[in-house]
Amino acid sequence: MTSWDPVAFKASQFFTLLRTTSQRLGQLQERKDSQGYLTRRDIATLLSQGNLALARAKAAILIQDDVMGDLLGELEMLVGAVGGYVGELEGRKPLSPVLVEASASIIHAAVSAESKDLNAVREILIQRLGTPFAQAASASKNNHVSPRVMQILSSPPPSASKIDECLLNIAQTYGVKWIPEPRRQDLLNTVSEILDTGPGSSPIVDLPRLRNICAHGLPDDPPWVRPRIWRLLFGTLPVLKTTWEKESQKQRDGYYDLVRRLLTPLAPLPPPTHPLSPTDAIIFNLSKSLSRLSPDQFILLESESESTGSGTCPLDPSVPDAIHIECASNLDKRLELIKRESDNSSYETPEIRLESEAQTNPDPSSPPAANPLASPRHRTPTTLLPSKSYAAAPLHRTHLSALLRLLYLHSMLNPANQSPHIPSLLVSLYSAFVGDIESEVAHAEADTFWVFEALVGEVGEMEEEEGAKVWMRKLSERIGWADGELAASLHSKSLDPVLPHYSYRWLGPLLAQTLPLSSLFPVWDVIFSCPMRTRDTNPKLEYLVDICTALLIRARTPLFRLGKRDRNSPGLWTQEHTSLPPPSPLRPWELSDAFTEGMALLASYPIDAAGGIDRILQTASDLAQRRMEAKDREREREKENVGLGARIKERMWKGFTNQVSDGSPEEEEEEEEEEEEEEEEEEETEDETGDHDDGNETETPSAPTLTSRLANTVWRGITNQSSMEDEVPSPPSPSSPSPPPSPPTKDAEETLPVPPTPSEQPSLWNYAGKLKDSDTIAAFSKASTNWRAKAMDAWGVRRGSNASASASVPEHSTLG
Asked: What pTM does this model have?
């Protein structure tokens, strides 16, 4: 890099630096192009191997490198423009618009490029043009920065569809057969075919196929698709289409009966007292719980539903008296009495803010601090939660009455489950059901109730204190497994998910308090498509942990830069695998800032800056696939760890108990091949250790392996053979039973292995060696076979002579 004299500005010296910088920028661009070519070849190889997760990660890097290449090309032209007007920097005349735009663009974008020469040019321009100009350029004020540069720097992170498009282009270029998964917006025809009730359609819903489709999310339009599929996934709507209307009416009648039973006793209650009675306290707390929610959660409930007044819902006050439920409004009337008797000013949330510590008056005689960083930093208070009164939630009165009834009925039926996340779950679920078709939305309240109860039953352990701790710990372990560096960074900033600062707010309401409804519904589509929970597993919560892990991974670079002044630099969200140098260690006050900034970032997650919800779900799907592959590999290792002794033990037991192997012939052949390979390895080991020499010129054969020794011994026992040199006795004839064999003699007993002492601790190998030298197994097996044959022969003789008592079994045939 050309040296620069900061004292005197020399146009020729600066022009040389500009020319060198332009050449370096061109070289960087060529290097990225060559790297992009290699990356495309790697992606094609990964697609052919089926490694889609790694191919997507490389495609995201490739897209980001292409954007950076465009930026380098634009900066190269801007450096050339400054070189053409470098003479204007020597005088005091007004600068030309071309020089102003080029200088401002370089000052603004140089921090995003990987060029030391360009940073040197930036510093010289700042010194020559002044600090005010540099500050305006850095903040992109006065419209001096090139629009093309602003467009490149503001490029959003690659979305899921853009990554799939990149992969498809690479696959077509290199001749790889690969088709991307369908986007959830393109699944409408497939879903409509499954839900079709017309003639010629299937009478039963293919639930496994429906779960596979929902694993990618459901289309947002039309809105009636989502509530119907959710009912199918939770089992509140049967898979037999002809019973839909009957079962739906049965469930709705059951809900309306609950309303009559639980709301009728509210009418004769005495006026509210102070303090409130238990029932009045429950009603008032439910109303407060709704008012605590963010107004964004009621965005679909601000207006009245189109089907209101249709005359089909008995809870609607406009229906005829014959079907109207008069007690439906008892809850609203009671709440009005409670609010009228209570002092509303006392029911307000306190304001929560962060303030700097109180500073003591310094001693005037003390010298000023030599290091300005050592002096306390004066910061303005940061309001985390403003104070507000428990006013009515910003939604239509009809929806407010329905939500209060749902919460009250759930509270009465589940008095032990009073989780603070219940209202968030209910409001989001109810918001989806009010988008049903007109004939169904009239009963949205009843349909929501049964799905809500099923949902709480699935994720109920999350609402318990101990259960929440378990899943927060799982989230911490999952992020450590997926990205160890990010997990360590979060731990150092006190943002470890094992702490309930934000993870409980994520997991408890299933991200209902973190994501907008437009992003929450696709997340719930994927979670609800998971199988129902069992005694030992909960697939829905496991996938929720994967999604939360994906949220942290997509915010990787901003989380690394917490507490640093450059954390809001352009393009940080686009650098999932950042190439920026690691930040310096955080100072004590920066740790506090990092925690505050991290909480603000994770509490209101910028889903669009992370690539959109489809990109999050794509990352979560890759994590779930990796997790399942890791489990499969672990099972394979467990199977491989089953040693030779365990396999021999199993075969010996089958031989003794006369069992037939239930394995396929292919599996048996594989096992035999494995045993033969092990025998060959043992023989090779023995050959390496030395050959056996019997003292003669002829070499003795190698010693048999353990497998062959045990196999021969067991085979002799099963086939009634002996290792002795005497002849095998011929089997007795059926007409003349032979005398029974005598019990094992003392000599045979002496051949049994003596139990070893604890100090010796002989293994299976020593035991097998001793077993080879004895005929105990053969003797016992031969005796057992002869006894069985004798008994069967005697049993046949007894059955052949029913009238003769002499046909009974002889006394000497019994044991003893």
From this structure: 0.72
